[in-house]
Amino acid sequence: MTSRPPAVVLLSGGLDSATCLAIARSEGFAPYALSFRYGQRHAPELAAAGRVAAALGAERHVVASIDLGLFGGSALTADIDVPKDRDGEEIARGIPITYVPARNAVFLTFALAWAEVLGAFDLFVGVNALDYSGYPDCRPEFVSAFEAMANLATRAGVEGAGRFRVRAPLLSMTKAEIIRTGLALGVDYGLTLSCYDPSTEGAPCLRCDACHLRARGFRDAGVPDPALQQAGRT
Known about the structure:
The chain is an alpha/beta fold.
C-alpha cells in the first residue's frame, strides 16, 4: 500500500496527458489514470494510454465507456471530415469542428467521482491554453469554474474532508516546453499518439491539427519525435 496521496489523472494517450501523468508522479502523488472510450474515431489512442500508464507507473488504469457519439456534433465522434493541412493561423482561428461538446467537463466529472471514492483531492488534466486549437474547455476560466463546482457538488467537499484541486500544470506552457518537461521526467513519447485521424493500426495521419501542433512542438524543442522515428516516417 503506497503512502503517497492518490490523484486521478486524465490520460488520453497523447503527448500532453502523458506529460501530466509524469508530473503528477514527480510531485509525489500515486497516480490513478482514467481514460475514456467515448465513441471517438481515434480509438487507437486507448492502446497508447495503456502503454503510457504502464511505463509511468500508474497505480491503476481504468478505461470508462461512455458514448458521446450519440450526440455527434464533432469530427471526432460523427461522420464529419477531420480538417487536414491547415496552417498555424487557421488552427488558431475560432473553435474547430474537432471540438467535442463538453468533453472535458464530462471527463472531469468522472474523475471527480473516482477521486471521491479513492479519498483523493487532486485531479490532473493536461489542458493547455496556448497550443490548444481554440477549445473552450482548455481555458483557465474553465479549470477554475470546475474546481469551484467540485467543492460544492461532493460529499467530501461539503463536509470539509478536504478541498478538491484541479491541477492543470501544462496550462501556460508551449508545446516545446511540455516536451522538454516530459523528457526531463523520463516520458517516452514514442508510446504516445496525438493524431485525430490515425489508421486502424495507430499510425498518425501527419496532416490533422493535432499532428501539426505536435510536429511544431518537437521542432521548436529541437528534438526528433520518437513516434515518427519508430514508424519510419521522419
